[in-house]
Amino acid sequence: MGDGWQIVEHPTFAGPDGDWKLRRRYLIAFVDQMAGVRSGLELVGLGIAVPGKMVGTYERSFKIERFDKIDPKIALSRLVSRLANYADALRSEGTLTAARGRRLLDAIRGDSPHLADLLDTLARLAAERVLGGDAAEVIATQRDMTGVLLAAMGLERDALRDWRGFGLRADFLEGQSAERPHEDDVIRHDWRHLPGWMSIQADWTEQRYFKGARRLSVFYANARPLEKLTGVDLIYYNEFHKCFICVQYKKLSRESRSGWIYRPDANLPDELKRMREIDEACDNGVESADIRLLCGATFFKLHEPLPFEQGSVDLTPGMYLSREHFEILLDERRGPRGGERIGYATVPRHLNNTMFAELLGQGWIGTRGTGTDLVRDQIQASLGSGRGLVFGFSPGDQALGNARR
Q1: At 401, is the secondary structure helix, strand, or coil?
Q2: 81-125, pLDDT tens digit by residue?
Q3: Element (H, E) at 355
């Protein structure tokens, strides 16, 4: 490794097999073995890793979720003297017992007190369970929706790098306390911020983002435990322009001959009926200089399935389609046996993440003059149908307009 450092986004490495437990996070110490030819081995970094599948007879894959460089480096010879009879912990290439792990962390704290906060943070992250299945998909959807709203407002998505989800129910996170993750970032709503909207019975959390005069509140609510949700809706409302948009996510599946494809499920007819009613209710003929390219309120995002990857700020690949466009495609893209399907190969024109976020943020799509009663009704409908909800709200005099380049 030497003095040349290279940052690798979401790296995966192979390492020796051992007593690793899957679906767990581990606090990992990184040792520079090349330093041994100069002045002895050195501890150069700490991080979080998740063990994966076996990639050979004796090796297992490890995904590095986080790496923090130690500066200055710590000579292992100094830690040996502090560990005394437990110095064999430094020779292990696998897991340590709880006792040896604590003693190694204490030795690092004693040698380098400035690392105390980092060690506390990493220990807390290592204790968090690795979500999988439907739960991980809901968390990934939450983050993608939040990322789209941040991009629309011209705000950086770096805040999502250490984001671990919000709206997590304590009855789902087995064995963990009811304290919410990153409590300094997740703010309980005071119920007076929005006029009557949050009186709906659900488990609400809020995250706030600022940049100059730009303000964005992102709320998450679910009336059911995470593992029982049927999906997640995105609703955005700009208070100044009374601009309203609702996005429903639909997952694509990969087929050997057709690639990424969406095929309608049993819930789609009722969902389309509700979305048509929303668009009709928003068609209020408002006379305004607030010009829209498309005044419809409802959109679909057809997205590729992605597991929740800690440390990523990327938006989920997919395509945005207005409800009207979506229905036309379903009718026109029927298979030879009458089956309905939509995929990249059959939809040459659609909005991607960047285009959708820019049009949303600059007010070129969405309704105008939409009252808060309709927004409240849609929040109620989402939660009442067993779906989670990400609700973005731009308060006050937040005027829409093209971003300055």
Answers
A1: coil
A2: 898 888 887 777 778 888 888 999 999 999 999 999 999 999 988
A3: helix 353-361
